[in-house]
Amino acid sequence: MIRDASPRSRATFRRLVVFNLRHMVISPVFLVLVPSMSVLVWMTLTTSGLPTMGDLFNESVLFAAGMGATMFAVTTFPALREVRHSEPLALPLSPGARMAALALAAITITTALMGAFMTVFVLTAPAPIAGTPQPAAFAGVFVIGWCGPLGAVASALWTRSYAPLIALGLLVPLYLGSSLLAMSTRADVIVNRMGAVFTLGLQPLPLTYPDTLATALLYLTHAVLSVLLTSLLILAVRRRPRFLRPVALGAVGLAGFCLFGVHTHAENEYSYDVLTANARPRTPSTDTCEVRDGLTYCPLPGYASWVEAWHTDLAPVLEALPDDVPLPTVWQANLTRRADVMVHPPRDGIVLSEHWIVEDEHYRSLVRSELAAHALGLPLPRGTEYPGVGQARTVVAAWLVTLGEGLDADEELRSAEWTLMDHGTDLDDLRLTHAVLSLPDEHVAAVVTEHWDTLAAPETDTAVLAERLGLSLEGPEAIPAPDWRRSLFEREWVTDEGYRPPWGY
Amino acid sequence: MTTTSPRNGVRARGLVRTYGTRRALDGVDLDLGPGVTGLLGRNGAGKTTLLRCLATDLEATDGELSVLGRDPERAAERTEIRRRLGYLPQNPSFYPHFTTFGLLDYMAVLKERGGRRERHDEVRRALRRVDLYDRRHTRLRRLSGGMRQRLGLAAALLGDPHLLLLDEPTIGLDPEQRIRFRDLVSELAVHSTVLLSTHQIEDVAALCRRVLVLDQGRVIFDGTPAALIARARGRVWEQGTRPPRNVTSWRLADGRHRVLVPEGVHNPDSDERVPVEPSLEDAYLLLTGAVPR
């Protein structure tokens, strides 16, 4: 680009980069669009108490797309200054070098913005980011962000007009507007497909987060090839020197072919079907596991903070269990890399998906429910029909599930009833569960610990538990009917013989 | 390109530039040194093409050209020429979103004018030279045509160029600014070579020690303004009656006619016909055969 690469020309090039940097950063377009886009992306962040590298990656990709579009707008103006206004001035630095200086300045700004975003994300995260960082994957995200300013340079060279910027300015609101208007209409399909194309552009590979070196390198290669393709197109549309056009067009073809190859390879190696087909069973010997209060956790690499957070919720349940109760192993699963535990679920294990959010009471009660079921020997409900109806251990499991951290009365009832739904229930089970929840936890815990062997036995019915707790299911002192207004159940679900709930467990 | 020019001059031999089949420059021979040279010619005579070739913005189709002792066809030498060149193109189109200071700062960066402080000092000086310092924060889109022209001149003057090529620099300038412009260019021409392409003959008369007249891509006159005027002596008249159609003439404010009689054309005798001292404009019009009727 700098044909006469004398120290003087290099110094001029550097000064021009700095000049462009300063002018872009103080331009009204930058001052309006960058904060707006940052706020918009920040508002759409999926906040989690346990953010993962996948979260950071996905949010960074979204930010890269937003900032790429913003920097496209910011860079278009000085790019047109170069192609429209500066070419005939016969200046020492060639038009190509001037454009390269502009592109470098714009890329520097984009990189700084994206770096700032990632830094703020990490620094404001409520816990250390879980997972193994893959620098190559994040380098790929930076490269995606660079497509914006490089695209502006390319479109300015190509069209010498503001038309691409106007098109982008119209397209984004049009897309957002049509997304809203098309909801619940047939046009929704078109909008969804547009969205799919957009997503494919940002994350073209079948990897939610490239969390191994191999997948990260694949992602980076894809991003670099995309930028290379854009850059070669810039060269191809330039008129001088003439020999460059066929060379650039040939290179565009080659880069396109390589890009296609990367796609094909990714599809062949990392699609869901391939991952599940290649899944291998996990054992404590293949993983780094950690024992907390007798419970073994086998997290994915880098997920130490995850163990602490989930254990905080499970600890009260463990405390209520007798010491000699056999406990399951808690496995963490990740669909992209470890389909293993999903495809080969371990017998005495609880499988926690990476995507389960610890703040979400639904997921927390699911895990507590599985722990309680394992402790009480309740068969896992999936694929079985009402294995726990009328059994004392079902109600005990429902009570154990309510021992999670910081639950209010409604959440306790909901958690208990979800457990009843999993294992099946009748009216007595439901009445007793409501009554147990109104008793002090210390009293219930003492009875459960003292009579654990009896209550955990499948043949022990609900009446036994009621009696041990000093309650009665029949007679003048009988427990009242459940409060149907607060309950997730409806009367006929537990009173009609042969009734099956609509969700059909 | 074997010809060489002095380190602060221009030399062209048989310079040709074609656009398709049209020859905009048709064998121009030229030697320029320090001082102001006026470049006159009708529209389409090839003035702008010549300036663009000298400014290395356009490649010559044929001929030999040396600018400031360097060959503009060689990339490295072209860069050296551009480092020492001040070029104001015709109707310069500057980026409208710049402020006047921003534009000159940008141009100063591109003209390799040192560090930031040094550069900004020079930009302020240039703005003062063209009387635009008070407008340094004004965006270009808010400037009048004359102000933009002065700004273009300031941009061309940045870095005290050895060769200054000015294409119609005084268009849109008011009389006061034109006087200032002449003063500025005269000052520069002490050490630099200035080629001034213009239709403002009075600027040439006031500034130039030498005049080139181009017609259909050829140099048809190369000499001093006095020599050009001398060629017209005895062929400029003022008279009360309208002259024949084949003679260049125009009506004056007092109702009389100024008549330019080309060589070989007969202007019939008239009692009230008075010979007058030709101006540079008369001489130019006689040379190019322009008929302003």
Task: Describe this protein's structure.
The complex is a heterodimer of chains A (505) and B (293). Chain A contains 20 helices and four strands. Chain A is mainly alpha-helical and 505 residues long. Chain A has three domains: 7-161, no CATH class; 282-313 and 324-356, no CATH class; 360-505, no CATH class. Chain A has a four-stranded mixed β-sheet with strand order 1-2-3-4. In chain A, β2 (295-298), α11 and β3 (329-333) form a beta-alpha-beta unit. By secondary structure, chain B is α/β, with parallel strands linked by helices. Chain B is 32% helix and 25% strand. Chain B has nine helices and 13 strands. In chain B, the strands form three sheets. In chain B, strands 5-6-7-3-8-9 form a six-stranded mixed β-sheet, sandwiched between helices. In chain B, strands 11-12-10-13 form a four-stranded antiparallel β-sheet. In chain B, strands 2-1-4 form a three-stranded antiparallel β-sheet, covered by helices on one side.
Q: How many individual β-strands of chain A?
A: 4
Distance between the amino and carboxyl termini of chain A: 68 Å
- Provide the number of structural domains of chain A: 3
Overall mean confidence score, pLDDT of chain B: 87
Runs of chain B in which pLDDT lies below 50 for 5 or more consecutive residues are none
Structure in a nutshell:
The complex is a heterodimer of chains A (505) and B (293). With 505 residues, chain A is mainly α.
Topology, element by element:
The complex is a heterodimer of chains A (505) and B (293).
Chain A: H1 7-25, H2 28-43, H3 53-86, H4 95-124, H5 135-159, H6 163-181, H7 187-202, H8 213-237, H9 244-270, H10 272-277, E1 290-292, E2 295-298, H11 304-319, E3 329-333, H12 340-343, E4 349-353, H13 361-376, H14 392-401, H15 409-423, H16 427-437, H17 441-450, H18 452-456, H19 462-468, H20 491-495
Chain B: E1 10-19, E2 22-32, E3 35-41, H1 47-54, E4 62-67, H2 75-83, E5 85-88, H3 100-110, H4 116-129, H5 145-157, E6 163-167, H6 175-188, E7 193-197, H7 201-207, E8 210-215, E9 218-223, H8 225-232, E10 236-239, E11 248-251, E12 257-260, E13 274-275, H9 280-288
Parallel strand pairs in B: 3-7, 3-8, 5-6, 6-7
Antiparallel strand pairs in B: 1-2, 1-4, 8-9, 10-12, 10-13, 11-12
